Amino acid sequence: MAPKNKGKGGKNRRRGKGGRGDVKRELEFKEDGQEYGQVLKMLGQGRVELQCLDGVKRLGHIRGKMGKRVWIQIGDIVLASLRDFQDEKCDIILKYNVDEARPLKQHKEIPDNIKINETDLMGNEEGFSDDGVEFAEDGSDDEETAGNLLAPPSAAANLIKADIDDI
């Protein structure tokens, strides 16, 4: 019988002890030099467009510690650290989940017009947004129009005149 492989090579290095699940953490409020924001657009390369609650749109940079561990999506409420030397840029230091954002709203840290509910972000109750595209029926058969598009009338007449023996 072969010995059990307990090394850290190959697939074993990827195997962890499992996720910690939903660990309750203490609610963190903003301090001096920090601002709450909502993600408007994912720009790629660890950057997002934020609408900060002080009314300024900023370019947010996801810090390296959060990069692969915390997934940020459009509509998430985040805590951003403002830069002293660049007012239009900030660093995202914390993402609030839905259960943490609700108490922030109750403590009047974020205004009531900010939507924190996951279903509200999608547009309507079903989770689908209406893009304003409407399809109209014109009443014509698809088979008739498809037959007309395949071959022009002159080509169809030439096919009828052709004799099988000639081929």
Key structural traits:
alpha+beta; 5-stranded mixed β-barrel; 19% helix; OB fold (Dihydrolipoamide Acetyltransferase, E2P); 22% strand
Provide a descriptive summary of the structure in words.
This protein has four helices and five strands, in the order βββββαααα. The protein is α+β, with helices and mostly antiparallel strands and 167 residues long. The chain has a domain at 31-121: Nucleic acid-binding proteins (OB fold (Dihydrolipoamide Acetyltransferase, E2P)). The longest helix has 9 residues, at 98-106. Mean pLDDT is 77; it is low at 119-127.
Which helices and strands occur, and which strands form pairs?
Layout (H helix, E strand, L loop, with lengths): L33 E11 L2 E6 L4 E6 L14 E6 L6 E8 L1 H9 L11 H4 L20 H9 L2 H9 L6
Parallel strand pairs: 3-5
Antiparallel strand pairs: 1-2, 1-4, 2-3, 4-5
In short:
The protein has 167 residues and is an alpha+beta fold. Helices cover 19% and strands 22% of the residues. The chain has helices at 98-106, 118-121, 142-150, 153-161, and strands spanning 34-44, 47-52, 57-62, 77-82, 89-96.
Low-confidence stretches: 119-127
Percent helix among the residues? 10-25%
Radius of gyration: 29 Å
* Average predicted confidence as pLDDT: 77
Number of helices: 4
C-alpha termini separation: 74 Å
Strand line-up of the largest beta sheet: 1-2-3-5-4
What is the assigned CATH homologous superfamily of the domain at 31-121? Answer: Nucleic acid-binding proteins
Helical/strand content category: alpha+beta
The count of β-strands is: 5
Largest sheet: 5 strands, mixed, barrel
The proportion of strand residues reads: 15-25%
Tell me, what is the CATH class of the domain at 31-121? Mainly Beta
**Approximate shape:** flat
CATH architecture of the domain at 31-121: Beta Barrel
Q: Write the CATH fold name of the domain at 31-121.
A: OB fold (Dihydrolipoamide Acetyltransferase, E2P)
The topology string of helices and strands comes to: EEEEEHHHH
